[in-house]
Amino acid sequence: MADTQASNGLKRPYPQNGDQQDDQKRVKSNHGSPASTANGISTGKMDVTKAIAEARARAAAAAERLKASKIGAPQSPSPRPPADSNRPMSKLEEMRARVAALTGKSTAAAAANNTQPYQSAANDDGLSRARGGLSAALHPRLLDSGKDAGSKSALQTKFSSTSGKKGAKQAQAKGKKQLDLSGPNLDEFQHQNPYFDPSLGGQTATMRSRVPKQLKFNEKGKYIAQAASIRRLEALEAMRKRIAASSKKALIEDDVAEKKFIIEAPPGIEWWDEGLVTHPDKGYSEVDSPNGLKLETDDSLITRLIQHPALIQPPGDRLIPAPKPMFLTTQEQKKIRRQRRMADLKETQAKVRLGLIEPPPDKVKLGNLMRVLGEEAVKDPTAVEARVNKEIAERAQKHLQINEDRKLTREEKHEKLEQKKAGDAAKGIYVSVYKIDSLANGRHRYKITKNCEQLGGTGVCLLSPKFCLVIIEFGEHGNAQYKKLMLNRIDWKENSPSPVREGNKTAQAAFLAAEDEKTGVLKDLSLNKCQLLFEGQEKDRVFRKWGTRTCETDKEAMETLQRTRMETFWTMAKSTT
User: Fold this and answer.
1) Which of 503, 508, 528, 357 is nearest to 439 (CA)?
2) Fewest beta carbons within 10 Å, which of 170, 254, 263, 473?
């Protein structure tokens, strides 16, 4: 039990007398090794001289191997120093020996600078545990033998900060030199190591000092010049593109102009015959052969089931209403007018600049004659005022003359109205049937006839002692206007005397007179009214023009309407109250 505790080196062993009941431990010495026991038994202390000899031997062997590798001679196994079973070499000593071998230091220098640091107990192996606070073990990276230069320098710094001070004091006390813990000489390392590549190392490996970057200000106008050059290049590129586009357009126009004069060759076979020929790629060359045409085959286009109906224009197409115009506000109308006038002014100015037209004379008025004429108005104001008044009168006369020339003649107005009527009738023909109790007032008959002619209507007006029937045909617009006339505008209760002209048989009828035949007083039309019996659309016009018929009996009215197959309207009017 005592031997095990003594070999540990981290705890003080119990006394050798076998009394383990006493928990009192021995007093620790100032140099880190356990104090001697009372019975004279002491722990093993490291032999400094022996450790230095071993380090020298290892350094010499490493130098011989390095020298043999340089001259290419075969390396002979160097004699290894006898291993000491009592105290193995520490990691720090191995590291120092390896550095000394790489840097090629002499054995004397290595021995002179190899000052023994803090040593552990005799039984400490120096690998798995360290002599520190709370007996903490070393980090695995500190135990690795393949450390890089950064780890070695860090370990040297650590030892120099802690145990280096104690080692220096002991070395001064014993008259020995202090251990050189500085890093390797990089210049010698670069020349001696054949595998060193300075391009792979950093600033520390190449010993290059960092040069501070000096401030360098841009010269005045540098970026302005760059921007100007960029703008010039962009302008040249844009001009190049314009020239290329214009030349390409000119080439295209020339090609189109040339193609207009080139007569294309006829195709080998027309597109409507491709489905009827067995081999369309050969053209019409096999038409005369028995199997050249596909007339009776299963995939033939001609069969007994083909029917070609007559094409009829849909009647609803002409009834499609025209698109409604977009209504603009007053501000929008002014804006459009202003834009149009501005475009016309720019066009006139361009023509004046090109010399195509003469520039217009100055528009002088009484308000701006002093500003326009200047000195001339001051010299002779009377003559200038007279000239300005003359120009104003000429401009007014020119304006009136332009309006007069723009007016349509009588024939042009008539033609324009006829075009409007034809366009209205093309949209669809509408038939309207009106029943009027009495047309004794001649003004009513005149309005009915005159509005029908003006609106381009056709039909007939049947005058009967019982009631009057009006059948009339119009376009869409004419039908709407005539409907307003018959139902709203005419006052059917009004009666006025009408002169009877000679030869007017219609006015001579007794039931059409405005006055009573016996008393000579105007007839009472307070109960007179107009009714809309029918309104609809038909395919074409039935009547060729407008006319008036006087029918004393129902038979005459039915015979008149039988020609146009509209006798049912008379029956409808009789049944309506």
Assistant:
1) 528
2) 263
- What confidence score (pLDDT) does residue 205 get? 55
- Provide the pairing of β-strand 546-550 with 458-463: parallel
Distance of CA 510 to the CA centre of its chain: 85
Separation between Cα atoms, residue 101 and residue 17, nearest integer Å = 49
Residue corresponding to tokens 């007994």: 304
Provide the mean pLDDT of the chain. 76
Identify the structural domains of the chain with CATH numbers, from first to last.
48-206 (no CATH), 268-307 (no CATH), 332-406 (no CATH), 427-575 (3.30.70.100)
* Residues 18/134, Cβ–Cβ less than 8 Å: no
Q: Name the token pair of 471.
A: 């059948």
Q: How far apart are CA 90 and CA 93, in angstroms?
A: 5
Q: DSSP characters for 194-207?
A: TT--GGGS-HHHHT
Through-space distance between the first and last CA atoms of the chain, rounded to whole angstroms: 146
In three-state secondary structure terms, 363 is coil
pLDDT on residue 54: 86
Residue predicted with more confidence, 41 or 62: 62
- The strand order across the sheet containing 546-550 reads 530-538, 429-436, 468-474, 458-463, 546-550
Q: To 5 degrees, how large is the angle CA 136–CA 142–CA 143?
A: 90
- Element at 388 (helix H, strand E): helix 381-406
| β-strand pairing of 468-474 with 429-436 | antiparallel
CA angle 482, 484, 487 (to 5 degrees): 105
Residue 446: name the closest of 413, 411, 480, 494 by CA.
Answer: 494
Which segment of 153-162, 167-176, 487-496 scores lowest on mean pLDDT? 153-162
Amino acid identity of residue 320, one-letter, is I
Identify which of 177, 183, 169, 26 has the alpha carbon closest to the alpha carbon of residue 95. 183
| From 306-315, 353-362, 515-524, the region with the lowest mean pLDDT | 306-315
CB atoms within 10 A of CB 123: 18
Chain-centre distance for alpha carbon 515 = 84
Q: Does the pLDDT value for residue 308 go beyond 90?
A: no
Supply the pLDDT for residue 280: 86
What is the identity of the amino acid at 412? E
Q: What would the two tokens of residue 74 be?
A: 């075969």
Alpha-carbon distance 149 to 184, whole Å?
Answer: 9
pLDDT, position 208: 59
pLDDT at 281 over 60: yes
CB 124 within 8 A of CB 10: yes
Q: Which residues contact 439 (CB under 8 A, 6 or more apart)?
A: 445, 448, 461, 463, 468, 512
With tokens 């039984």, the residue in question is 123
User: Which has the higher per-residue pLDDT, 258 or 436?
Assistant: 436
The neighbour count for residue 533, using CB atoms within 10 Å, is 16
What one-character-per-residue DSSP string does 216-228 give? -PPPTTHHHHHHH
